[in-house]
Design goal:
7 strands; 3-stranded antiparallel sheet; 9 helices; Alpha-Beta Plaits; Beta-Lactamase; about 15% strand; 4-stranded antiparallel sheet
């Protein structure tokens, strides 16, 4: 949008089908109108808002394969005369090229998103994670800062899928994604590494700060589980270092993850043993 009333009109919505632009969008046809006061399709609402007087209009649809996705509308010639057939034809040609360019830009953006974003959760995928890790590694070395990594794994995720179905498993993945995004900064990156495993990249973050993020996630998950129809738990590995070697950084975080899983399993076995001892004591009474 260009013109003297840009600031007044910017962000305002026109209901579908209303006015000349709405008619063009709805019917997919170009129009040239010498005097809008004689055209019943004209809607003066925007003129009233902007204190502007529309006299003549040429408008053309932006469309591809008979699908309209926009409208180009020119209002009032600077010299006060009406628009000509040549100008109308020129705008049609511009609209054709603009539609092709916009469509290509849209598909390019869509392909880029497919290549970088996990389709289920909407967070970065493994390919993006590797690219960001390489970038943050170089930045960390350059500025002599720490880089932390959290590796998050959903406990007994296979059992969730087996017992409640894969749609329920998808809901758990999406719930964890929302929780992780709520616990990190804008400069941090949440990535789905694969399956039920996620990675959080924390630039310029040392061991203590990474531990705070881990505890924040655990606390949020605990709150979530109080109201959730399908509660779940996670294990989180954390490691912070000056990342000379990304494989080492990832391996150490992974080791911390499995240490936590082993501790959980050990605690479960110890708890089970105590209950078995109580059970046998009761049986012997």
């Amino acid at each position: 949008m260009v013109g003297s009333a840009v600031d007044t009109l910017k962000g305002r919505c026109i209901p579908a089908g209303r006015g000349i632009a709405g008619w063009i969008a709805e019917h997919g046809q170009a129009v040239i109108i010498e005097d809008v006061t004689r055209d019943s399709r004209f809607d003066p609402t925007m003129d009233q808002i902007s204190n502007f007087t529309t006299e003549s209009i040429i408008g053309v649809p932006l469309k591809t394969k008979n699908k309209v996705f926009g409208v180009i509308e020119l209002i009032n010639k600077l010299n006060g005369s009406t628009f000509t057939a040549l100008e109308f034809k020129t705008l049609l040609t511009i609209a054709d090229f603009a539609a092709i360019a916009i469509e290509k830009a849209y598909y390019f953006k869509a392909l880029k998103r497919i290549a970088t974003v996990d389709p289920l959760t909407g967070v970065l995928n493994r390919r993006s994670m590797i690219r960001i890790l390489e970038h943050e590694k170089e930045r960390s070395i350059r500025h002599k800062t720490m880089l932390s990594l959290l590796v998050i794994d959903i406990d007994k995720f296979k059992a969730i899928n087996d017992d409640s179905g894969h749609l329920a498993g998808d809901d758990v993945l999406k719930a964890l994604t929302s929780l992780l995004l709520a616990c990190v900064r804008k400069v941090d990156s949440v990535c789905r590494y694969g399956g039920d495993e996620f990675v959080v990249i924390l630039p310029e973050t040392g061991k203590e700060a990474a531990e705070e993020v881990r505890q924040r996630i655990m606390s949020r998950l605990s709150d979530y589980n109080r109201e959730a129809s399908l509660p779940f738990t996670v294990s989180i590995g954390a490691y912070a270092s000056a990342p000379d070697n990304l494989d080492d950084l990832f391996a150490k975080a992974d080791m911390d993850l499995y240490r936590e899983k082993i501790e959980k399993d050990t605690a479960y076995i110890d708890n089970l043993s105590e209950h078995l001892e109580d059970f046998f004591d009761e049986e012997n009474i």
